[in-house]
Fold this protein.
Amino acid sequence: MANGKWDLSFLYDSFEDPRLEKDVERIAALSLQGRDIATQEGSDEDKLLKMLAMGEELNNLIGSTFGYVSLRLSTDCTNADGLRYMDKLSNLMVDVRLTSSAWARYVGSVENLDQLIAGNDTLTTFAFVLKEYQDQAKHSLPADMEGKMLRMSLDGADAFSKLRDRLMGSHTVELGGETLPLPAVRGMAYDSDAKVRKDAYEAELKSYAKVETPMAFCLASIKGQACTLCEAKGYDDLLSQTLHESRMDKTILDAMFTAIEEALPDFRRYLKAKAQLLGHKNGLPFYDLFAPVGDVQLRYTVEEAHDLLTETFAKVHPAIGEFIHHAMTHDWIDMYPAEGKEGGAFCAGYHQQKQSRILTNFVGSFSDVSTLAHELGHGWHNRCLEQKPVLLTDTPMPLAETASIFNETLLNQTVRASADDATKFAILENSLMEATQTVVDIYSRFIFESSVVEARKTHIPSADELKQLMLDAQDKTYGDGLDKEFRHPYMWACKGHYYSPNLHFYNFPYAFGLLFGLGVYVQFRKEGASFIPKYDQLLASCGSDTIKNVAASVGIDVTSVDYWRSALSVVRGEIDEFVELCGKM
């Protein structure tokens, strides 16, 4: 195995590498050169070709520079050079966004666009990009207004978002005579001691009182600006804008949520069964959602994880097995926890260099192995996208989890197939715990955010109102699976997804991603090996068509409730097995 540290020299040697500063300067130059594309000399065909070439170069430069700086900061969060470059690049992105909007307005003004596309092979290749620009033009702010709005946002929603990050980044909790950082206390939800879990939960809720008022203003201000901009851009509402930007329509979302609502009683069966195991009679208290149950603690070394993953995937898709082996033996992964390193895990792809980099915090649990499978799935998705030009690789978030969920599911099903009951139980609990968060809790967050946006039309919701809206949302989704005396009214404060200035309803894509990935897995089980080439092609097409058309390319109709029911049947089967094993225990 490699040494557990990633190699970033494929991008730059260091922050002192002159290529880094040169590439940053090139981004600034290109964003200015491309701004006045409409008034430059040449035919529309020549201008469109020039615009696309500049777009390809800009995307690759941004990927390399932002990628390097982000990767360095992810393992050394206080690096002064990294923070300086991040500020510089963030300011540059205002210019890049203005250039992108100028391109959209220009493409929208080309009257014979379809004819030009049909008559030029390069334009035909990028037809989807050009048609998206044409569509974006309908929702673009006037050029003289957009720059002012973007810069005003730096003192508006962007500032409130940074304030939220500052408040939560420095938020502490008083527990057991100690002052602890919030992540440490929230992490106690996984502790094996019931008293530790409950005490941490109660201390966490109590701590929010000191920040609930500024947090409420941050949330209301960000959503208020979003609604104003949404109206200025000509969208019906904020959800319509989000769906449009995600390349999906409401019929798809409605079909998915219909199936989810039908499945909520099954998730409640799981929660009640777990509650009974832990000695609770009125459903599962929130502080025990992540409580460990069962006696088996599966442990793996990195070498054992490598062998398990390569063998599992080589049997189904040899190319993925080879890909995993290469990634794990060629310094693509920063593997272990370290001081100054961010928590969690992610995968970042670099199209021009045809490589990915993965961050995990591996300590040897089965969950860690599953996380590796998940992130390596993203890496395989990046590999499949390499067959497309970089402008055709911008995957909407709902499709971005397809390969990662497929990988997780295949690993889960494979290991369970030959495991004893105690091991099966441990794996099922881990899987269902995560599925409940991704389906039930995410649905509660969607209901909550919808309520906040509606309330914001008439007033600024207070902290007390936000707490009640959250409790109402949890009641609608968790129902009697959750003990009503022990819910979490402050989930709006501790989840950063609500506070993004540019991403709203940053919740349903997670449920979509899980269930779409499960549905693709169901399709694979039906068709067997013949499905694999179609699977790779599906992944390759995620950035170059609508969600509906990408799914249809492998025979999936995402507008059908039955499709989502088939995906949820995988989870229902796990719940049935979990409840049966609970009976044995």
Q: What stands out?
A: Strands lie at 172-175, 178-181, 333-334, 346-350, 355-359.
